[in-house]
């Protein structure tokens, strides 16, 4: 946890430094101090604050995207795919929905909000889809999503987002929540976090006696598509998808 916290803190520090350059160009050093305070305050957000921010952010994303109806083919398929997957993560009820978009992506927030894009479902078979979803759940279970939200908040705070504390988080406007959600979805995890989430998914599938080969072939498919990626996507990963596929295959061959 210490290593992760230091990494997250470093990310916020980098944000402050970049914003500081812009602030100093404006000739107002006091603004830099205020921005820095807001950014570093983000690192002390409680689990409750992060969940509240995730609730607002997820609501904003749902409002901005076309959510597949419960009786649609996509929603029914996802319900079948996740039937053997966790119903809660870190004490938060898992809430699975499909966004009808050609984008190849999926993400999960600390409040249990798990969103899968129809473009990803079109690309993956059920075993592969479970592998990817297990990976996203891993980010939440391992605390990565909380850190990602903290960093997203820090960059938003520098642009005037309401400060945390005193119930202000729950009072985020729709536009502020949308801005926060966009920063969360566009942010990248570190290489060590991605590898840890891969391992979490592998172990989760093993524990639930589900097919693990899909975790390998899903990355192989993403590797083939990586050349034409644009915007937030599972293909924009590090280490490269091909290396991740090889590492999962190695674990599969070892039987553990």
Structural class: mainly alpha
Distance between the termini: 24 Å
Rg, Cα atoms, Å: 19 Å
Total domains, how many?
1
Strands of the largest sheet, in order across it?
A: 3-5-4
Proportion in β-strands: 5-15%
On the 0 to 100 scale, the average pLDDT is: 80
List strands and helices in order, with pairings.
Elements: H1 2-25, H2 29-42, H3 47-64, H4 73-81, E1 88-89, E2 92-93, E3 95-99, E4 106-108, E5 113-117, H5 118-123, H6 126-141, H7 144-157, H8 174-186, H9 191-207, H10 213-225, H11 241-254
Parallel strand pairs: 3-5
Antiparallel strand pairs: 1-2, 4-5
Descriptive overview:
The protein is mostly helical and 256 residues long. It has one domain. Helices cover 62% and strands 7% of the residues. The chain has 11 helices and 5 strands. The chain has a 3-stranded mixed sheet with strand order 3-5-4, sandwiched between helices. A hairpin with a 2-residue loop joins strand 1 and strand 2. The radius of gyration is 19 Å and the shape is globular. The N terminus is likely disordered. This is M48 family metallopeptidase. Keywords: Hydrolase, Metal-binding, Metalloprotease, Protease, Signal, Zinc. Belongs to the peptidase M48 family. One of its GO terms (molecular function) is metal ion binding.
